[in-house]
Amino acid sequence: MLCMPSLIKGHEIARPHFECIDQMSSLAENHVAVIPFPATSHARPLANLVLKLAAEAPRVHFSFLADPGYNDVLSGHSSADAPPANVKVFGAITWPWVNPMPGKSQDKMLQLFLEEGPKNFEAAIGAAEQAVGVKVSCLLADAFYTFACMIAEKMQVKWVPLVVSSPYFVSAYVHYDEIRKCLLDAAAHEEVSSQPDRRTVLEGIPGLSRMRVEDLPDGPAVFTIDSHVLSSSEELALVRSFCELRSVLPRAAAVVMSSFEEVNSKDLLEDLRSRFKELLLVGSLTASLTPPPPHDSAGSGCLQWLNRQKHRSVAYISFGSVNSPPPEEISALADALEASKTPYL
């Protein structure tokens, strides 16, 4: 199990390095089943985490229960970057909902996949155990697969979910009931609309008290939708999994987040830590970060400019490595930032 990473602080980007894995590398054999979520930007972070762990614990087998194509994620961009010998992909799982056939509903296929997930993954775990010759003792899964909690409890093994999304996303769904009440109460006071003012502040929600309704993940409609519609609509299958986070994450052996301690509010992290057995922030898992050059070799003067700014006065904006807004939206964002007189990168 990961221990809390040490972070290199200062003007450089904090870089996590994993200092230990609880006795795993010293044992003769251990077997971890890995359940990745293939869509959007979720595949790479879990792969990067496992590759780091596999290098630290060569005697531990990591079995990816995934489509055979997941080998491309593990191997990187070069055929020379083959995964280590203790990491294998067992192609016992298919993801037809990721790229559905013409005429097929992606929402319906995802709903069926999630409903059949426990049965299919239990079978895949059995096949991996037979192939490796060692029983699985831990499930390392994307947190979106909340059914992994039930599989682990049935097998009497540890479950460690990885949260790729922001800790604020998790907090919003952990406090789903409180936020829902807040929004419905606010909507009841609106004379024209049945929806609350999007500028309503989420007062009283730990770590989210400065956020507005319009800042909520997936939008305020998800938090005010009729409970019957939420429980039955095939379009909301994944949202139902999000809502389950508040009941399953406290049962995890540890909750791992691809985030940094320093970029999250103290109130937010204290609230999450009070709810989980262990919360591990391991830094960015989206890409392998290399140390920045010792000097601003590009000649842009960016680092020198940043060092001259007041503490916590600069907005840093990044759209990740998978999706980016079109140029006109980026231009509009820059115009808004300049109009607000906010220094930004």
UniProtKB/TrEMBL annotation:
<protein>
    <submittedName>
        <fullName>Uncharacterized protein</fullName>
    </submittedName>
</protein>
<comment type="similarity">
    <text>Belongs to the UDP-glycosyltransferase family.</text>
</comment>
<dbReference type="GO" id="GO:0035251">
    <property type="term" value="F:UDP-glucosyltransferase activity"/>
</dbReference>
<dbReference type="InterPro" id="IPR050481">
    <property type="entry name" value="UDP-glycosyltransf_plant"/>
</dbReference>
